[in-house]
What we know:
By secondary structure, the chain is an all-alpha fold. It has two domains: 1-71; 74-105, no CATH class. It contains six helices and no strands.
Amino acid sequence: MNNRKYPTSLFIIGFITNILFHFFWLFIPCIILLIVGIFVKPCLYVGLALLLIDILLSLIEQFRIRQAFLKESDNPDFQAFQDALSKDGNWRDNIGELLNQKMSDPQNEIKSHDESEDK
């Protein structure tokens, strides 16, 4: 049984990021319509409807991301990432340690284009 937990702070950050950037095509018109809606009531209602749609789509998207994170993976690098986020303590520090570990590992060395052609 998988005992991983998706960090709540990461869920909230992802949700807000989805609202602002992933569904920006809903967010920008929503803001414009809400500003115009100060003076024209129908624009206010359309802006609120777009904001509600944006919030619902962002929430659904974030639950999909959470579900993908909690699902078992065959990829060892993704498993290490999952473990780093799930460990006790600060998830940011855990991810930093994972990245430092991966960068110091000689197997993960980036080869130039010329070196890869020689082999």
